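ping. complex inputs:
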Amino acid sequence: MPDQPHIVLIGAGNVAWHLGQQLQAEGGDVVCVYSRSAGSATALAKLLDCPASTELSEIPATADWYLLLVPDSKIGGVAEKLQAHISPNALVMHSSGATPANVLAPYFMHHGVFYPLQTFSKERVLDFNEVPLCLYTAQEGDYQRVESVAKRLVKNVYRVGDEQRAQLHLAAVFVNNFTNYLQYIGQAISQENQLPGALLQPLLKETIAKLDDLTPAEAQTGPAIRNDIPTMERHLALLKDHPQWTLLYKQLSMGIAEDLGKK
Amino acid sequence: MPDQPHIVLIGAGNVAWHLGQQLQAEGGDVVCVYSRSAGSATALAKLLDCPASTELSEIPATADWYLLLVPDSKIGGVAEKLQAHISPNALVMHSSGATPANVLAPYFMHHGVFYPLQTFSKERVLDFNEVPLCLYTAQEGDYQRVESVAKRLVKNVYRVGDEQRAQLHLAAVFVNNFTNYLQYIGQAISQENQLPGALLQPLLKETIAKLDDLTPAEAQTGPAIRNDIPTMERHLALLKDHPQWTLLYKQLSMGIAEDLGKK
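pong. complex structure:
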């Protein structure tokens, strides 16, 4: 792969939207955006000032780098179709945290994974430079070239194999999905009691800001870590109409006591 | 209570440290800091340029407002001792989210709760103006006077009764304690797999920043909400050496599916 590679984006969703702009600015030449959805392909292609395509058979066959930015369940199917249309020397990478690299192995000798560890929404402005990029290539010779492009895109690039990436994706579920759900519960409890959900926002902000200075183990407070049983019993009584949240409260409190409690 | 009340702080911990400075700057005259610990009392009194005391019998008897900023389990005991030394007309308030106002009722006619909804550490700089203050007074006539001082301290003041405050404290456990614990798990998974915990920080920051624009229900993503069973099964296999986190993963995923999943 040359220093200024020709790049084809397969997919025009949230990841493609942010990554595509950064690639076009710093990484190389995005020469085509493919999506089954003409609207999505056209919108992103317009933003990147390049052609759009809705047919895999029509995308450039001799680009250097094909990035599969599609849902996990579509990667295999798209790869199989793509193989018929592009050069066997092309480098093809998917961007999924949860999918092994070798789903691409039957189709492309030069393959790998380009996993940006972030939650993307088209509507939000994001400093892409801060997104950690986790890279893997099946051929050792491909790694340095991908890394050198990646380092122009972001501050922090990591070499991460399949097993590590799967664990990282799992950790991200705790940090993103589950953390968000706890905010849902917190706001729901407030709203059920005629209190505005925004009341909790300063507490949430400071909870997270503290982690710039402290490890989560150092920052942990609350009834569970100090084994304050009367407070926990009052909380469980308040949760009596929410059996699911009651179980969660118990499970989280037991986890805190077990992992972080004073032995 | 006058517009510029004389205030005694009972307690010199994290809450007193931040609240005391804001009271001295905007609320009135802090005339004494009491703590059983001479070191804590002296340090805060020096910061506030007022006398320190380590004996309840020696604090000013005729101040307007006594704030009990002590651990929940100490409130009743301190109140009982305090009663012997101060004017029966004084207003006495505790600052606990989890404690009913009426623990003070046996001792003081004018009592209430002054609950700042935030996590405080002496080491951290905090914009106190952003801290929501949740107020309650047993005597209706006391409320307006406390509120008018409180509004000089912070942007947002809420009138919150015992039941609402208990629920709010419960919600705060989800938003602060449990959220922090999920970050512990995320970092622990990373570190067990030789990945730096800081890798997850940009994802956490964006997870929280998104909630400026979206409700948690709108922001929810991940395998649980889309019922992606193969991904959840892979995650559970990765957690096989962590039975506690396995239960949590299942419980949180079931909660997301039940509360937020597409029906």
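Chain A has nine helices and eight strands.
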